[in-house]
## 1
Amino acid sequence: MSEPTPETLQMLSRCGQQPLLQILDQLPAAEADQLLQILLDADLEMLVQAWRNADAEPVTAPKSNRAETASAPANVVWQPQSEQDHQRWIQATAAGEEELSAGNVAVITVAGGQGTRLGFDQPKGMFPIGPHSGRTLFQIFAEQIQARRQRYAAPIPWLIMTSSATHSATVEFFQQQAFFGLDQRTVHFFQQGSLPALDARTGQVLFARPGVPALSPDGHGGLLRALKRSGLQQQMSEQGIRHLYYHQVDNPTAIVADPALIGFHNTHKSQLTTLVVSKTSPEERMGALVEIDGRTEIIEYSELTPQQAARKDSTGQWVFWAGNTAVHVFCPEFLQQLTNGDRNLPLHVARKMVPCVDLQGQPVPAADSAVPNAVKLERFIFDALPAAERTLIVEGCRERQFNPVKNATGSDSADTCREALNRIAGEWLRRAGLQLRSEAAVEVSPLQALDAEQLSMRVAEGELQLSDFLMD
Ligand code: UTP
């Protein structure tokens, strides 16, 4: 083993890692080296600092004056109401279509999360969500990308971020499924980093095995480092990509590479554009976009007291109405600025149960099964927002575009998402003039139609009929 430097030893001691220091020279050299490398790369000192700053209590009293100084976002493109608005959206769509046809757009799907709330034991992208077909989330996105590539005769590279928790299973699944018919050279997997979990009481590194820290993915904000380290940031720049269309793996109704959003983003010369929807109530557990000191930021629901969350402005509008759908368009140069020198986003702390062992390798039982034993540290991509000088917020249609699968039951679950997919398919078919029973089981593949207009056209031209969509 290369001897740890005195600086490293001092840092471990400053961070209160005495147990770790004790085992260091008992470990095989390669393991000790690897352990130190992980801790230095993760910037353990910063992790411990985040743990020290973390609040153990839920928010009951105002935490900062951020919530008080925030106002509703100023720069918003609203859903069209008037004929003039409609024209504006049509122009934006045409502008976005030009960007797509010119080969200027790549898609990033973040799929590195552990999906603990859903309780599915595979990567979430492999979850069968098609209400009747059982299509997986990955298949729905692959079909959307395929259909857009065909429509615009454009390459549209697909970048999929995985983590150590999801990488092998995801790549194997794509191989088994023959990349859903996509040319595999156009699908790029890249892995985000991991961070060690810390003991919630002591801030000491927790171990999965003796000498091996308990690691978890570093949050969707890990995208910045991972894009750079994988070389994909450079590759996309060489390919002339001008817009990176970002979405999460858990919302199959997200419109991937939506020309309208790309068009607005391009025309406004925005560095970071975000699709928002109106929150259903002030208490809804959804981060809200706001403006603070002339910058766009997100305030998490967990940062607000119930009184703050319900605050209205002088127009009678909720200040925190603009719920983040986690669909963004990034300007690559902006991302490059953020990653210059490997600068990083702030750390967020989540209290979770993490299985761990003691120095002898014996499992450590939880002191109290109701109290999480660990803090996990994560970075969030939306923390990039305040760094942008030019942002844009576009209001989406919630029923059509935001139906995520987060929970095993209840709201934002597989059931609510499948209902939405069935409802949207029914609406498109009725608009195309097809006679449908109200409870009919129907599903539209993105390869059949990307939107209601295309479906109507294909039905009118006799290319598709009702039986192509009926599933029972
Ligand atoms: P969530 O924050 O909903 O987390 O991720 P999750 O891992 O899917 O689910 P829970 O919280 O454990 O139940 C939102 C999106 O960000 C991705 C997820 O894959 C999902 O697309 N993500 C999350 C990452 O890519 N990496 C991460 O480290 C965390």
## 2
Amino acid sequence: MVVSGGAANSEAYRPTRANKFTFGLWTVGNPGGDQFGSATRPRLDPNDSVRELAELGAYGVSLHDDDLVPFGTPSAERDEIVRRFKKTLDETGMVVAMATTNLFANPVFKDGAFTSNDRGVRRYALAKTMRAIDLGAELGAKTYVFWGGREGVEAMASKNPSDALDRFRETMDFLCEYAIDNKYGMRFAMEPKPNEPRGDTFLPTVGHALAFINSLAHSEMVGLNPETAHETMSGLSFYHGVSQTLWHKKLFHIDLNGQKIGRFDQDLRFGSEDQKDAFFLVKLLEESGYDGPRHFDAHAYRTENMEGVWDFAAGCMRTYMILKEKAKRFATDPDIQAALAASSVAELGKPTVGAYSAAVAAELKANPGDPAKLANRGYGNERLDQLVIELLMGVR
Ligand code: GLT
Ligand code: MN
Ligand code: MN
């Protein structure tokens, strides 16, 4: 546990169910293996993960089909695993807020799942996903995530990207119908990522995925699950990516973690890198009316034993709570409010000219304003940003 004294230990940062913090079973369950070394921690029983997370104040978990029911488990055993898991959920009051399919680990998916060149693989992936959707529905998941981990290429010549997008769309359209037909009441959330494990992944960023969703037959039931690490890997601001996702009303779920630009997908403890982006993100989520789970898709450093894993999980939630409190202070700090006014932040919320009419256009062309005068002003952004930094450094 994080040990600190005085105000830093304040009850205000203690999470409750109402904060809607969720964790993937694969996150706290990550045994610490990497490309160059094997696991450093034992595999966790999903039931133990749920119990420990409930103790820490989390609201629920998310899972891949294979996280709960290992690949290839016979059906009688599968039913028993699911029964036990449901009992643990009942006992702890935890929910399964999101479910997804593992379409990346098994060698069958080495050329992709929904976009494999092999039609047999594509059909297998579709069948596996339908079964996983059934499992998600059985556990009460209202959001179903699609991360196309293997949907991409190393050899450019190996796939026609437009054929791949046709197949991706065909599959998503089919699965939307499947969920509707079964009255699952689920929404789908697509998760973009630029690369890793593939050299180049289809639907690499929030922007690509939003455009793709517009082309779907049931675009109203498909939104995004953006991840901090994935947008940051592309060198983009996650805060801006999530802002645009919200603007399109497509933020169906979110994967929070920490990441340095230009690295492999680090999935670090939430807020442990780029605190400014993390701060604006939390402020955005809290002020936008987003009422979905605050989901952590991250894992503890490989250096950690189980104690460190629970420090990691508590740390993700605690940092979120601290940033949430800072967002409240941002809204009430008189110096920050004055600096926002000096930067004309509210003015951007006012229409530039309003609806078109020939008369308005002519009037504006005749009186466009004086560029020399307009260029003369300062925007006070140095002062504004310094105040944000001071807020984050704890001196305001
Ligand atoms: C995998 C990936 C994550 C996705 C998970 C859902 S699996 O851990 O790195 O970003 O969200 O499939
Ligand atoms: Mn993720
Ligand atoms: Mn990641």
